[in-house]
Amino acid sequence: MEIIIQPTTEAAAGIAARIIARLLRDKPDAVLGLATGSTPLPLYQALVAMNLDWSKVTTFNLDEYIGLPREHPQSYHSFMWENLFRQVNIAPENVHIPDGNAPDIPAFCASYENQIRAAGGIDLQVLGIGTDGHIGFNEPTSSLASRTRIKTLTPQTRKDNARFFGSEDSVPHHVITMGIGTIMEARLNLLLAFGPSKANAVAEAVEGPVTSINPASVLQMHPVVKVCLDEPAAGQLQRADYFRWVYENKPAWQAF
């Protein structure tokens, strides 16, 4: 696990964008796993500004609300097309986002897993982290071997997301999410965290024990994880100075 601490959100997102850009240049037909919410917005803005070639890229999104129309402004379909896909040259048939209106949710989840496998697996998975350590919508106590499935959102997550909907009562109770086991099969996981509200969850995930109470802590068991943080999100890391020293002294061929 490589911890990359930068002075600002924009600087941290810029490094994450360069990691993805390097992958797309080396492998034009890469398979990306993508996240939604406020955290990846500066990353997507940076990627759009790079004018990369997305024509052969395939994407799979982490999650989607159940029962929310696709055209709803807070659906993750709307989010992704508004903030990334309409601004790059990706082929619409290569975009995969969970269908929160599927008539048979369990069957859809199994199909989604099969689609990921058929695409050759995910080369790079973008992740955010919740204030309680969730990744995707894998809430605390989620199985560390879980697959794509329906999940019930915790009151904390619904409270955190209420700012997007205008009120907590308007936030859906259920979602489809990739499982932790699914996320762990990505060849590289790229986790972003910005702001002081994420500092405790980040510290637990990076320096604490591996536990389902903080689902992101399972990333300690993944062979290739890069964690891009701004200074406030790194505020509770005990070994922050060490992480900074390691990044500043990387060999040139490892730099981003």
Task: Set out the fold topology.
Blueprint: E1 2-6, H1 9-26, E2 31-34, H2 41-49, E3 58-61, E4 63-65, H3 76-83, E5 95-96, H4 105-118, E6 124-127, E7 149-152, H5 155-165, E8 174-177, H6 180-184, E9 188-193, H7 199-207, E10 225-230, H8 240-248
Helix pairs in contact: 1-2
What does it look like?
The chain is of the alpha/beta class. The chain has one domain: Rossmann fold (3-Layer(aba) Sandwich). 32% of the residues lie in helices and 16% in strands. It has 8 helices and 10 strands. The strands form 2 sheets. The protein has a 7-stranded parallel β-sheet with strand order 1-10-9-6-2-3-5, sandwiched between helices. A 3-stranded antiparallel β-sheet has the order 4-8-7. The protein is globular and about 50 Å long. The two termini are 16 Å apart.
Task: Give a short summary of the structure.
With 256 residues, the protein is α/β, with parallel strands linked by helices. 32% of the residues lie in helices and 16% in strands.
Poorly predicted parts: none
| Class per helix and strand makeup | alpha/beta
Order of strands across the biggest sheet?
A: 1-10-9-6-2-3-5
CATH topology: Rossmann fold
What letter string, H or E per element, gives the SSE order?
EHEHEEHEHEEHEHEHEH
Alpha carbon gap, first and last residue: 16 Å
Q: Determine Rg (CA atoms, Å).
A: 17 Å
CATH class: Alpha Beta
- The share of residues in extended strands comes to 15-25%
Largest sheet: 7 strands, parallel
Count of domains = 1
Q: What is the CATH architecture assignment?
A: 3-Layer(aba) Sandwich
The level of helicity is 25-40%
**Helical run tally:** 8
Number of E strands: 10
Question: Which word captures the global form?
Answer: globular
Mean pLDDT: 96
